[in-house]
Task: structure prediction
Amino acid sequence: MARYTGSVCKLCRREGMKLFLKGERCSSPKCALERHSYAPGMHGRQAQFRRRVSDYGRQLREKQRVRRIYGVLERQFRRYFEMARRTRGRTGGELLCILERRLDNVVYRLGLADSRAQARQLVSHGHIEVNGRKLNISSALVTAGDEVRIRESSKDNGHFRGLAEILELRSVPEWLSLNASEMSGIVVSLPKREQIDVPVAEQLIVAYYSR
Result:
């Protein structure tokens, strides 16, 4: 499957905001956006002085931003949009709720990984189980009542040593419940738009796909 292999710091600079694609580094002075607040490329410095962006440009930018935050390719993102469109409720809000339910995002939200990219790697390497069974599909959608945990055979892995103590200091979204000592969590309920802290104007995405 195709995937982005370039510098993720360039993605943050292109969007003009931190997408937190590299975990703790994004909160440190090493963050590329702290050192270079302009867009990447030879004309990046001049971009901020260009004429105002068109409505289409703003819609495209918003769609790209959400795709990059969750690490989803265009084809899959379009499929999620069609799922949201067929669901009762506001399409934009439902789209974000579907993205939040991805297994890699849940692993990240529980604090078991520092970034969604790292969460995808943990899932694909077989370190995560859902309801007692190993699941290595990062795009799998969880539902209310599901239990997500680190596999017992993986707890001796270097990444997970000392993680329980770190989890004690972390907070999780209202729709999740964390058991720090067991390095596990339960999906208490499906996420609602007001419980998702992603800074995005989802109505622009709906407008983009409604052209």
Notes: The chain has a mean pLDDT of 84. DSSP finds ten helices and five strands in the chain. The CA atoms of residues 115 and 129 lie 18 Å apart. The chain has three domains: 1-51, 52-101+199-211, 102-187.
